Amino acid sequence: MKKILFILIAILATSMPLFAQDQYLDKDMNINIGMIQWAERNSEGQITGYTGFNLGLGISVTKYFDPLEVGKATPFWHWGTVMLLVPYVGLGIHYQVNEAFYLELLTFYLVPTIQIGLTF
Fold it and tell me: How far is CA 3 from CA 9, 15, 105, in A?
């Protein structure tokens, strides 16, 4: 398991300088182990947030402080529910590695969490 995680991190780390072009992301969906979300856009068509469902049988909403760009760390706040009744809220930083992969460091309540996800 450690070997697979190390290989995945090495691939992502080496792809960062190759694909980061400081451009706005033009994708409609993101998926990670815990949720699936659809993009929300501003009047210029830039992604300003995501709304969707999580595996805790609830909803999840992510709002970025700046439009999402490839190769740029973007702070955000998020909220949602677990089992449709228990609310949660947190802060985080989203880094879009390239057009396909992203990394997030966030809090779920006060617990720090790292997520790796796909954007398409």
Answer: 10, 18, 22
Q: Which two tokens stand for residue 4?
A: 């697979």
Q: Enumerate helices (H) and strands (E) in the chain, giving the number of each.
A: 1, 8
Predicted confidence pLDDT, tens digits, the chain (120 residues): 566 655 555 555 554 444 444 466 667 888 888 899 999 999 999 999 999 999 889 999 999 999 999 999 999 999 999 998 999 999 999 999 998 999 999 998 889 999 999 988
CA of 35: how far to CAs of 61, 62, 65, 84, 107, in Å?
10, 11, 21, 14, 15
pTM of this structure = 0.77
Query: Measured between alpha carbons, how far is 1 from 17 in angstroms, rounded to an integer?
Result: 26
